[in-house]
Design brief:
single chain, 118 residues, mainly beta, 3-stranded antiparallel beta sheet, globular
Length: 118
């Protein structure tokens, strides 16, 4: 898990999209650090202010090098050497939630709208 000390906030994307669909309340905070002529990058993903997962690697690489997921109690699950699997859940055209899976860990489901279960 990267320590963000020394990293600089590069940009924030509110209601970030996955699968081409914006997820209300899910924001991506992207940090960078120059290291040995390359740029390390860490994406910190928060939902309504709570950190849900991170993904990191180097700018210009096609995929993340690693990722980690927080469980509902706020504990970090084991780091996985790949990108997280993020799925957007919709009812008709309305986003009702999303799920994140890192490696073999159980996916974490997050409800977005009060429409869930309606």
């Amino acid at each position: 898990m990267p320590d963000l000390t020394g990293f600089v906030l590069h940009r924030v994307i509110e209601d970030i999209d996955f699968e081409g669909i914006g997820v209300p309340g899910l924001d991506g905070w992207f940090y960078r650090l120059e290291e040995g002529g390359r740029l390390r990058s860490v994406g910190v993903y928060t939902f309504e202010g709570t950190e849900i997962f991170r993904a990191w690697g180097y700018v210009g690489e096609k995929h993340c090098r690693a990722s980690a997921l927080r469980d509902e109690e706020g504990r970090w699950c084991a780091t996985h050497l790949d990108c997280p699997e993020v799925r957007v859940h919709r009812r008709d055209q309305t986003v009702i939630g999303f799920s994140v899976r890192v490696g073999d860990a159980e996916p974490r489901y997050v409800r977005v709208n009060a429409l869930v279960g309606a």
